[in-house]
Amino acid sequence: MNFRIAFTALAAVGFIKGVEAVENKQNNKSHERPNIIIMLADDLGYGDIGCYGSVINTPNLDQLAQQGVRFTDFYAAAPNCSPSRTGMLTGRSPYRNGMYSYRPQGHPMHLRNDEITIAEQLKQVDYQTVHLGKWHLGCLPQDPTFNHPQPSNQGFDYSYGTESNSRPSHHNPINFVRNGEKLPMQQGYSCQLLADEAIKWWDNHYDKSNPFFMYIAFHEPHAKVAAPDSLVKKYKQHGREATYLACIENMDKAIGRIKAKLNEMGATNNTIIVFASDNGSYRRGSNGELRALKSWLYEGGIRVPGIISWPDQIKGKQEINEPAGLVDLFPTISRIAQLKVPKDREYDGTNILPLLEGKKFDRKKPLSWFFYRTSPEIAIRKGDLMIMGKDEDIEPRTHSFGRQDMEYIDTMSLKSVEVYNVVKNPGQKDGIVDMTKNERYLNMLQEKLQYIQKEGYKWNELPAPESTKKLKTDWKKY
Fold it and tell me: Out of 18, 208, 240, 448, which residue is the most buried by the measure of CB atoms under 10 Å away?
């Protein structure tokens, strides 16, 4: 009898421990998911960091590339700020979001609340979500004239940043907002302020029982640039470009502080860090051999540095030549977080996790771009080729998006095509002329344009035309 009692007691203990093990496994499920940090520079060119051939001292970014993946053909979602950020956060081409160009202050265009961001997606599995830096997706803080969704409405638990650029420059900005409240002048340089805030959040708000997603949108090196005198002096041989170069090194130093904090917390190995730029540089010497600048669909406007590190899962010292881009982050992060991509809308990005892990990769849709304000207006990357369509538009256009631009987008058509092998000819100096194929390419682009005209979001209330208009070729000389 005593033996039976003892056996029953042991069995009960074993059963309880088994239940506890299952419960603990379920409770710790979040620990199987990595922390995620997206770092986005503002107007950083393809050739602006050391591991992409720059003279600028960027040891922290170079080390990040060494311990992970450096992409040679990584693309922004658009050639300027706001549309590129919407493409990244939603995995959808900017025309679907209705973000056709950058958003000027006081403009009604914004990222609408019915779009699903990476932060909203990750909230489903208890990620803690933080936005730091440039927003540029609507008014910030709330303006009752517009009632645009705030970061808190689009999945972010915590927010510290600006509506658009740091003003009056990167130094001592006066336009920062924390969780909806305007702040007094912030003492210091913008990139270091973001590093300070990230560290404070980890120290004061981070609950280690769940993973975090942190979107750090640096203001550097968007104009107006500023950097510490000690760094500017290092680049004095570069004349008036010294401050531009120094502010990038200052950003790299801020990234170094963030990496050091991760290391201190023991979080380095299970944290994915993505680094890229929202578009190419406005500075002629920053895009390497690539053609053109910010605001153009040529490579200099959209091909940007792309680095992804995840020591626990991704082999280091990789260089990947397969095209990838910001629109791929939403489906990739969803897969990593064991989440399904919503079925009620179209996505343009592809899960690139197999590519990062050295497995077979199949892109569902070719990367593509649409930008009405310069010419070519449309581009599709197919294999080694960049296929570009031109409207040959000769009407002067305004700088900011207005009623006449929405009307133009709805009625435009393509007249000619340019084709480049951007692997052999990244500078796009000579196009490929093949009359047997070019007509087919033009038809393909025209079909894509018609799809954009049908599926693109239509804004009903837009500003009247500005008085200043220019031909597309005059907006930015290159």
Answer: 448
* Residue 25 covered by a domain: no
What burial class does residue 369 get, using C-beta atoms within 10 Å of its C-beta: 0-12 exposed, 13-18 middle, 19+ buried? buried
Q: Say if residue 342 is in the same domain as residue 319.
A: yes
Q: 129 and 268: one domain?
A: yes
Say if residue 288 is in the same domain as residue 191.
yes
Q: Are 103 and 164 in contact (CB under 8 A)?
A: yes
356, 391, 411 - which closes a domain: 356
pLDDT tens-place string over residues 147-205: 999 999 999 999 999 999 999 999 999 999 999 999 999 999 999 999 999 999 999 99
DSSP H or E run through 443: helix 435-455
Supply the DSSP string of 29-93, one letter for each residue: GGGGSPEEEEEEESS--TTSSGGGT-SS--HHHHHHHHTSEEEEEEE-SSSSHHHHHHHHHHSS-
Residue 8 lies in a domain: no
Beta bridge partners of 65: none
Q: Containing domain of residue 392, as a range?
A: 368-474
Name the amino acid, one letter, at 433: V
SS3 of residue 168 by DSSP: coil
Confidence (pTM): 0.93
Residues 323 and 266 in one domain: yes
Q: Is the dihedral of CA 426, 70, 248, 79 positive or negative?
A: positive
* Same domain (yes/no): 344, 416: no
Phi/psi-derived region of residue 373, left when phi > 0, alpha when psi is between -120 and 50, beta in every other case: alpha
